[in-house]
Amino acid sequence: MRVFYSSASPFAAKVRMAASHCGLAIESVAADTTAEPADLLAANPLGKIPALILDDGTALYDSRVICDYFDKLTGGQLLPQRLEAFATVKRIEATADGIGDALILVVYEERYRPEERRHQPWVDKQMRKANRGLAALEPMLPELSDDLTVADFAVAGLAGWMSFRFKGKLEAEYPALAAWLAAFPARFPAYDELGPRPA
Ligand SMILES: N[C@@H](CCC(=O)N[C@@H](CS)C(=O)NCC(=O)O)C(=O)O
User: Fold this and answer.
1) E-assigned strands of the chain?
2) Fewer C-beta neighbours within 10 Å, C or N terminus of the chain?
């Protein structure tokens, strides 16, 4: 299997950490989404990473679908079986992913729009979304068990990415999440290699 990724992407980091946790050997192929490379578009018409190419050549996207596939492929290593625990993990994953979606739009507004075309009320709306999500996420963290699940990888991907894209925000506003991230490499040593890092 091959995964299109970039070293900074929180969603690609989530998938690569999940694959490692499941003991899956996947080849990582760097992709620059801005350039819309043909091989990425052939795998994912949306042009987004992560996109996974299976051994039979078919493709899967996005990070939630890929992680669910890994879970099924490896007999339930990312998701709990019990309904209540499953719902908790999925809620935390969706919250972390949704915060990432909102913050990425904030980053893209700056990256892709000329200054005179930026619309601050829309950026503010995305920031409110992210801040509500972060405030909701912090009290959910104690619900995570010692056993790593996809929720841990989603939160670590998000928080690791924020630590350089929104430097200082977690420490200043969401210290429980900052502390959770600081403790994560001890729980998952491969974070140092697979966690998000500036491109
Ligand atoms: N919901 C998607 C989000 C993926 C996503 O937004 N990826 C970003 C990089 S972190 C991307 O590919 N952006 C390029 C684009 O939107 O064209 C997932 O969970 O995989």
Assistant:
1) 2-5, 27-30, 51-53, 59-60
2) C
